[in-house]
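Page header: ASSEMBLY MODEL / two components / 1152 residues total.
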Amino acid sequence: MRRFFKLFFIALGTFFLLLLVSASILVWIVFTPARLTPLIRSQADKHIPYLTEIGEVELTLFSTFPQFGIRVNGLSVISPGTGSPSDTLARADAITGVIDAKAFWKDRRLTICNFILSNGSVNIFSDSLGHTNFGLLISEPAGPDNSPEREWDLASLNNAEINNLSFSYTDLAAGISSSISGLSAKMAGDFGDESFTGSLSLSNAIVSVKYGGHDYLDNAGIKISTPEGGIMLKRNRLLLKEVFASINDLGILLTGSVENGAEGNGVAADLDFRLSDWEIGEAMALVPPAYLAGYGIASASGEISSSGIIRGVINGSQRPFADIDLALARGALEYDGLPFRLNGVNGEFRFYFDPSGESVSYIHAGFFEARTPSSRFTGSGRLNNLFSAMHFDFSAGGDILADEFVSFIPDGIEIDISGRVRGQVRGGFAMPVPPGKVPGDMRISGTASLSGFRLANDSITIAAGSAGLDFSMPDTDPSGVNTGFASVKISADTLLASKTGDFRTFIKNGHFYIEMSDITDTILQPSFFFTFSNDSVWAERDTMSIAINKPLGWFSLTPAPGDEARQHLSGACHGYNLQARTGHSSVIVEDINIHADIINDDSREDIFLKWLATGVVEMKNGSVKLAGFPDPLSIPSVRMDFEPENFILQESKFIVGQSDFGLAGELSNVLSFFRGDSILRGDFSLESGKTDLAYLMAISSGLGAGTEGSGAKPPHDNADNPNGAKNSNSADNPNGAKNSYNADNPNGAKNSYSADNSGNGPYMVPLGVDIALRTDVRKAFFGADTASNILGRVHVNDGILLLDALTFTTPAADMQLTAMYRTPRKNHIYLGLDYHLMDVEISRLLKMLPDLDTLMPMLRSFEGSGEFHIAVETYLDSLYNVKKSTLRGASSIRGQDLVLMDGETFGEIARTLRFTRQAKNRVDSLSAEFTIFREEIDVYPFLMVMDRYKVVIGGRHNLDMSFDYHISLVESPLPIRMGVNIAGNMDRMQYQLTMPRYAEFYRPASRRAVESRQLEFRKMIREALLDNIREQE
Amino acid sequence: MKKLLFFPVAAIVAGLMLVSCEKDEVFDESLLVGRWNSGTLYYRYFANGTGYTWDEKDDVREDEAQHFTWTLQGASLTHIHIMEIGGSVPKYYTVTELTSGTLRYRDVFFKSFSFSRVG
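Prediction written out in full:
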């Protein structure tokens, strides 16, 4: 056996030796470089249209064992005269090629066993006119293709290596300049029917690409590793299997195929890819700086990983299926528009495109988060139906320090913002969003909490200590039909709003809830629903302030039922301890409750017609303190129902000083009145237990005069203001009424009141109103005087103010007063008085009616009680001066057991008639009537019995205080009858004894016609006056 | 002495005669109907016994005049001025002349009034 092996190895060695010798002969003797090089050079000159330089060609065996190979050393292809910086089109230090000669010889199959190119370069150049340095290589010869048909097949490439190849491509016309240096590659595979499958490895390629003046790649390291792949030339299809490619170590793993020209002109892709941990900064470095300059990205870092599938045809009309995941980790960004650096940027995204079912295509952000130095954001979202009806759903959260975002406020808006906001928002809406419109199918909801929040500009400040915010759009449980668009709930432990030098508002424990309709809808009327509940609200502006505890209420604005073109406002408010103050005036209400429904009609201009209100106002234990008024006006209770046509004052009670009032009643036809369809009617009752008239007159004196401090003080307070009420109705403002009539528009009560309170002109009674006030005052004080049981009606009726049969009782008398004030025009004002006093003290009568002394001066000479009736009327001018030509009056006086005082007139008479001198002279009876007509006061002859005399007195008194009286002595101790004429005036009185003019006046049998007529007139006057007396209700 | 008594007696007789003459005078009340003017003062009498008066001196217009009723019996002219507030003011005059163009009367205090017809 050993022998066998010995012989076998000897034979084998001999064989290899012979083989080696034969090969050496071939290599070094037969196919020497000296013989091969010219052969190859001639072939190169024949097939390469450019000058070719070949240093040496040799046959290799040992370096390519066991195959023979050919190595070409020092190959250069020269393409001169093209403007290229280098005239070398291609160059290689060495090119070695090894083929399987046996296979080629036996099967006519070319197997490239090895191909190695070392230290080569390729220089492609095209000048600005398109002239290239390689054009002859690609130019086709004219005429038919006479090249012989190839008689062998390309079978396989066992190994191809390129070591240190440089590549340069310059296209001046296209502005492209690119280069590859240090390229090393390995490739192996099998050739098929116009296909190649195998492996490719490319490493150490440094690539630079410059295009259009921009560096797209600048010395980028390119690596490609294809363990298994292929190319199908017939279908322009590239097969990739776990291909790893990288640029500057940013690698991507690809598996699949790419086919150009599939299904038309598209590119059919079937690719899986994966990239891991791309450093964003490095990836961005691949982007030309010019493209990044506009984004203001100062720096970016982080890692991007992605994987996905792309399948389908890509062309202008077709999109491939794609399912791509993208992850962002540990990102950071410095951006010119951000005053801070974003850190901790992490996110996961998925892009899913399915052209076969576009409705399921989406972009999904699983989560996203980022941090600023003091704030944090999180979010997730999904954009569905990418290629049809897109819809975006999202969820976002934040923990934001507002101070960080001040710089986002546009220049020119000086706003300072601070505080912390934490919140979460989720929602969705349809896309695209119409410009200026609310996105369709929008729903968004969220919560937010604010702490130490403060927003301020140079004048306005809004601050909240700790506040919460909940909002939802749409509102899933709206209170109204139309308010489901959105809702907001706000809660704040403290809420402050102020404007420097203007107002300040403070709310404690405020809770607000707002629902609304789509306010961007210009067709439908907007709808709101608003509720509030606070512990307290306080506000002040200038000298005004208001505060209220526990305000609770709601407010809604909706289209009016049945007429959606109009707005319906509704609201209610309840609160405790309302305190309002302006200057030295204040209002305090312990309990206030308001409910109102208001219909808006924008077609009307008048505010009463524009806002038709229905509701209730209730107030308890209120107090109003007005500047200049020493005592507050207490309001124990007020309750008023109101609706467009009727205001019903159910109950109201007022107390001021010692006076108390209760007012109730109804104002009707309000809306009709303002429409001009009807007169305004009112029926009220005023009740009072006590009324201090002097006090009320004192405190109301001067109202409307407008001069600070002019308001008179009440009697007990007048020591400091000796003028008292002198400012009340000055000559410049005789009315003193706020509601002065506008003379330019004396008609139409709607605008009957002048907007200003200048007080020019008299008080004009409104037209078109009919308001009655039934009074029931049990006791009224006027200084030391007291009136009780004041009953009657005050009536304002279409330009007439009427005190209708006001009856009252004073210590002096039972009285009844009817007064009429009518204002047909500004300079023609009617004033009528009908005054009845029963059993009145004459001295008190003159005190109450001082003007009576002018009308009947003799009354001052009597003392005692009687009854007094007077009716008088006149017209006044605009300054309330009496128009004497219109003065009319009639009066009747009855007295029993009167005492004649030592008056001036009767003193003279007594001396003339030699009355017995007694301390007081009794007048048994007095019955007199007098009339006033223009300036004439006619005293009808009346009988007076005094002392031992009976006299009849009659005459005329004029308003200029001149008089013409006659006294007839009808019974006396004297045996004669006589009379006295008294004429002149009080300064120059003339007496004349004469015949008694009224000697037969009280003797019916002897009475003459004139005397009878005078008695008839007296009777008529008295009866007419007594007819005016009404039975007390 | 006779001369001394003559003048008083003549005066009394003349006065008595004058009074008796006035009593007998009768004026046609239809002449009173119409519009009468004295300065700024106006009266208007209607045939139904009503009338009104106004004085332009006080910026009173005719449509703002105050109403009265009137009677003329012989020479006795009575105005009953009606007050809106209630009550009436009678005025009694003695007509001394009433023609189609002139109206004169006086009151019991011998205050005379003279009017001209203006319509």
